[in-house]
Known about the structure:
heterodimer; A: mainly alpha; two-stranded antiparallel ribbon
Amino acid sequence: xxxxxxxxxxxxxxxxxxxxxxxxxxxxxxxxxxxxxxxxxxxxxxxxxxxxxxxxxxxxxxxxxxxxxxxxxxxxxxxxxxxxxxxxxxxxxxxxxxxxxxxxxxxxxxxxxxxxxxxxxxxxxxxxxxxxxxxxxxxxxxxxxxxxxxxxxxxxxxxxxxxxxxxxxxxxxxxxxxxxxxxxxxxxxxxxxxxxxxxxxxxxxxxxxxxxxxxxxxxxxxxxxxxxxxxxxxxxxxxxxxxxxxxxxxxxxxxxxxxxxxxxxxxxxxxxxxxxxxxxxxxxxxxxxxxxxxxxxxxxxxxxxxxxxxxxxxxxxxxxxxxxxxxxxxxxxxxxxxxxxxxxxxxxxxxxxxxxxxxxxxxxxxxxxxxxxxxxxxxxxxxxxxxxxxxxxxxxxxxxxxxxxxxxxxxxxxxxxxxxxxxxxxxxxxxxxxxxxxxxxxxxxxxxxxxxxxxxxxxxxxxxxxxxxxxxxxxxxxxxxxxxxxxxxxxxxxxxxxx
Amino acid sequence: xxxxxxxxxxxxxxxxxxxxxxxxxxxxxxxxxxxxxxxxxxxxxxxxxxxxxxxxxxxxxxxxxxxxxxxxxxxxxxxxxxxxxxxxxxxxxxxxxxxxxxxxxxxxxxxxxxxxxxxxxxxxxxxxxxxxxxxxxxxxxxxxxxxxxxxxxxxxxxxxxxxxxxx
Lengths: 499, 167
């Protein structure tokens, strides 16, 4: 109850003209970013982190949370109108959303997914407001051992789930990310590690430039590697059938609750995030539906489930981010970088070091939900025109924005090299079906994993027993072993099926 | 990318990863040796965790190599003919143009003392847009206007609004 009142209090504090206006503008920007194919919520947050470097904390997170919520929803618009998901998390929405558009129900489909997104985000934010504060109290009992196994489990599970082709590729991505995190002065021994005499590497590889490289540059390159022309369906209903949007969505109450829980749960798993939440929500809704046959042919339920799932994952992904310092999704990983830049240290101490911050973030997401409803109504019709912006003009601007956005964070020309190198590597990895999520999560959590592993050993004079005697550690170790064994079996099965 | 091509790419990647993992293993052992030479405990060493990760990376690389080989991938696809086909593909040319032009922007135009951020960005945008645009009078005018407006917005947004010193 105390958490809820603190959350509502934080929301009332946000009701200021400048904050509301900024939230409306940033959510609108998020919707546009999310809707334009090739631009994602992660990319939008990463690029704006540089722009908001000197902006006061409250405004910074108003902008970033607005772009996050707007970006995740925005992907569904292009999924419906173009059959191309603006973001990967909207890929499942395209299956039924575009079919509805082809049946002349584009406007209703957009309205239905908007309401589904709003409900999903709302349930996710309630989970964040209610679960995060007690979780920080539990996390206060964590020692190096728990943080080590938790972070390691995060990288492993992210690698396993995010892999697009062979499951081992997800692991390899995580291992590469971890290896990149080792490049810096070691905090325990105080020696330079893998820096090869380059002074720019002594402080490590900056996460935001690396993420801009991994997420933005490959999209710029990919945009010109095909001559595909976009066919945009108009965002209006051509059918004379009158459909009540509210009733259509509310009638799917079971799917909404089910998808929300999936979204929150998968969102809370380190690095997994909105994309997986959407697919699992869609798949579960299809398996448990009474109208299975309609799926893929224009089912409203099929469009509602992934939208509720991916938006609920926003709140879910923010829970481990704030309470443990472990991001639940790629956009949350960028938010972690932004928090650090602004002097906020996410983790168990957050309630002591930055009291009320969790409620403030939850309140900002709630405000973003309201803003999403407003800008969703305003942007619904002009979206068909916005989606027609030629990539020949848009993508070079994204490239220039990526460069200046990365430079703005550290004012370092070396960070630009990082954007370039990770951009090119990210493009080739993308071609070979390596997801950037485990690489980025490895890069973010690598320092923590290494440090907590050795601190735990130092505390026990090199004895590994603490890893097997502390209950949370044992649970996560068991999950790690299970993940590894499952991976090996999956790999073997796939190999056999390919031979 | 079709299955066989993907496995061929995996085969090459696995070899690169083996080299990368071996290098990491070598430098990790060096770090561990240095710690022991200073009479410190092995578990304090900066090389300990990288050593473990490099071993896992090598194991994963071997697993990827095996999967690719079992799926029928061989290195014989690396020949003059495939290289020729690869180079003349429009996708390859577009990719290499973008990578090269981005490198020119980051390593030549932006650091150049004789060129400030505004002209460097304008040139970058204009050339990039024109490369993939049609060469008509109206397209050129439109590109000039869009490049100029985008440069002005980036300069104003980052330089004035966010008060960030431009490169």
